[in-house]
Amino acid sequence: MLDELVIIPARYRSSRLPGKPLVDLAGKPMIIRTAERCFDVVDREHVVVATDDERIAEACREHNVRYEMTRDDHPTGGDRVAEVAARIPAKTYINVQGDEPVFNPEDLRIIIEAARADRTRTYIGYCEMTEEQWKDSKFIKLLFGQNKQLIYIGRAPVPHGHSGEFQVGYRQVCVYAYPLEVLQAFAAPGKKTPLEEIEDNEVMRFLELGLPVDVLEMSEDSMPVDRPDDVPLVTARLHELDLV
After folding, report:
1. Which of 107, 146, 152, 206 is the most exposed place for a label (fewest CB within 10 A)?
2. Is the pTM above the cut of 0.90?
3. Yes or no: is domain 2-124+174-191+210-234 CATH 3.90.550.10?
4. Cα dist. 163→65, 109, 153, 155, 159 in Å?
């Protein structure tokens, strides 16, 4: 049994950016760029792309990235991760979103260290956000208690006082860690829960099912690729990081 298995869910279909995992970023598909960031921390044999599309599988073969084929009817990436987890035993499963090609590898180390300290808990990353990000529904906002346990997660600009002015906000860093039992409970419904459907964020399902989630502070380096105009920004960042 592995200590940790990093699984990167990747589907070809995307309403905002079709073919997103294969978008070219300075000569390499985005899914490969994301996997390479994971290789900085985890042995490449312990990183798996989970996909239902042969085009993505071909890109993985071309770049010597391990992959697993999954069903094509999963409602979320987390459900895709659960299918792979059922095949490959590990103490902790770490879900790195495939549209995070410039995330800071140190963030992956943070969540691995937390998981090793307590294998029973579920973790997600967060960082502070700017006022512009706070106003943009693309960025997922978190509310959490003083015990660093997640209270709510969604797209509205929260916290939001009477003045309507930005004071502070935290956004999700898209790396999650969970034990198999929690991942199985998450996937058991086989569909999105009501608030998850509205927020379009799978972490909401954990809260709706009464599964506690702890938050871990991470860097502000994450730049998700969600829309076509994100591509040149991320490409420029790859050049800044000397990753091309």
Report:
1. 146
2. yes
3. yes
4. 50, 39, 22, 19, 11
